[in-house]
Amino acid sequence: MLFKKAQRFLLSLPLLGLLTVNISQAQEETKQIVPKLQNPISVPYLQKKLKKAGPKLVLNPKIEKNLKKKLKSDPVVQNLYKAIRANAVEIQKEPLLVRALEGRRLLHVSREMLYRMNMLGMVYRIEKDPIILKRIDEELKAVCNFTDWNPSHYLDVAEMAMAVAFGIDWAGEALPSSTIELAKTALIEKGIKPSYNEKGNTGWVGGNNNWNQVCHGGMVAASIVTADKNPELAVKTIGRALDSMPQALVSYGPDGVYPEGATYWSYGTSFTVFTAAMFESAFGTDFGLAEFPALKESADFKVLSNAPSGWYYNFADCGDKRSAQGDITLAWFASKTGNKAYFEEDRFLAPAAGMGKLARNAGAGLVWVSQYKEKEDQETPLVWKGEGDNPIVIFRPEANDPHQYYFGGKGGRGTVNHGNMDGGSFIFELNGVRWSIDTGNQRYHDLEKTGFNLWDRCQECERWTLLTKNNFGHSTLTINDQHHVVDGKAVITDFKEGSQPEATIDLSAAFEGQLKSARRRFVKDSPTSLLIEDTLEASDSTRLVTWQLLTVADVELVKGGAILRQDGKQLKLENLSHPEISASVVSLDPAPLELDRQIENLKRIELRIPAYIMNDRKTTIRVRLSGD
User: Fold this and answer.
1) How far is the CA of 535 from the CAs of 507, 538, 621, in angstroms?
2) Helix (H, G, I), strand (E, B), or coil: what is residue 386?
3) How far, in Å, CA of 350 to CA of 263, rounded?
4) CA 250 to CA 254: how far, in whole Å?
5) Cβ(77)–Cβ(369) below 8 Å
């Protein structure tokens, strides 16, 4: 199915060529057709097309002129700039950055530098304040004199390289020549050249995850601003990015789901749009990036992942809650489509003094906000299915829904990038309360510093001992108290829209060797209820089926189910199919392992159904969750 849908995408993109690559086990095991970006990059092309005067990164003289015009008339642009200016004031109270690693990462330092250059750089572009210029100069000299930018963890290099590139691009004509020379040398020697290290640490070059997007973005920024110093290296590096980025971008297909979840969408996608914007400002074209199949559609995924409660649908290694600030990356999509659903005007117009620390792409984002022009109404779907490496379904509320009904369910498998053993899991909100939760993510450094092996994803790997990563920490099924089959992909097999939407997920592969077959069906059977129906066929090895719901609500067990209470609201859990089997509650506060994420009042509601009661090895579990 994925292969056929990719073909349909490609027929609509005559400017894009094709290449065939083997993508990882965490994606599809078959060969997949991947669109190409245009790649005319050569030294003559660079000399002819690369903008000569003024800034080149996101800004150029024409874009800057439009931005300054909007600053005089557009209240959204004015307010966001006011917040950027306030951030620049606060930065000047902070000490200069030092090369201080956190475990194996320098990433927090690199990100802070990118933030500082976005804030200070944008204020300098608008006001030409010599005090701001002096601070940019000091910041650049500090980080360019680091011994290195930690190439063993290349995200650190990429974000630092982009930061330094923006610094000298947005303030370059006024900086001391010695600073510009220092910075360009650092960009080449500490930024670009280590990315050609044959000894390793460069697996991101052709990778299929966010590293590809972030690292190529940083290298492109560095190459554009150093092209005058080493055009051959710039051509080689920009060309490499254009050839390699599709291998990560294809993960958005076919419908826009980012397999690593909403916060990783923000990370990987923010650098992709950085790169597209830099290409446009520097060369007058983005080489096909904005039209890459399913990239624009992924903005719907991000919008739909924002639940009414303020939480994300936080599957995979996703954060819990979104920021109160307007989404800067979505603003780029708004500028390209005119879709007001992507332009969070109310959040951008919040009091500037109360916005706090802005996102590190907010300086560039001011440009995208200034470029937004609303087009005709474009509806965001209320019921949505996204296929791909980590397929999901979402039922979201209408704007005037008093119950704020929100459901997210998923397929997928543990071996997807940042994936968990969570096939068949779901989150459910009603009346402003998240009743069924995803246990979410936890800080990587807190695990890694103990020697914990977080990143290997074999069946017996240590990652799956964590509650946030295994099936015991998700609202799904567990068979024989065993882990899911890590590479068994759960797929969406049926999907119906309408006032009573439903979706069916085939979980059989996740239970290979444990069950003969398993299908989970979700139905919004009323404006205040969700029906979960599991159709199962046992195998010789099936002993026990456990139906699970993870919650932080207080739970009262009653005949035929349970009553959940939270924040003055209540939800009824009805065991429709097996009322003779009583539910039980397993406290997960504290969680089983010291290294587990500790979540206050976390518990798992279970229905434990022994295989011997199944009729002809078959059973259907039907549970309804309903509110007032």
Assistant:
1) 10, 10, 7
2) strand
3) 22
4) 8
5) yes
Contact 203, 196 (CB under 8 A): no
Mean pLDDT per 10-residue segment, the chain (628 residues): 37 32 37 89 97 94 98 98 98 98 97 98 98 98 98 97 98 95 98 90 93 98 98 98 98 96 96 98 98 97 97 96 96 97 97 97 98 90 97 95 97 97 98 97 95 97 98 98 98 97 98 98 98 98 98 98 98 98 98 98 98 96 96
What is the three-class DSSP state of 450? coil
Give dist(CA 510, CA 390) in Å, integer. 13
Q: Which residue has the tokens 């011994």?
A: 147
Residues in Cβ contact with 213 at an 8 Å cutoff, skipping those fewer than 6 apart: 245, 248, 249, 268, 269, 271, 272, 275
Maximal C-alpha separation, the chain: 82
Q: How far is CA 475 from the centre of its chain?
A: 21
Strand stretches in 383-481, DSSP E: 383-386, 392-395, 406-410, 426-430, 433-436, 477-479
Q: Are 413 and 506 in contact (CB under 8 A)?
A: no
Q: What does the DSSP 8-state code read for residue 381?
A: P
Contact 429, 309 (CB under 8 A): yes
Peptide bond into 592 cis (omega under 30): no
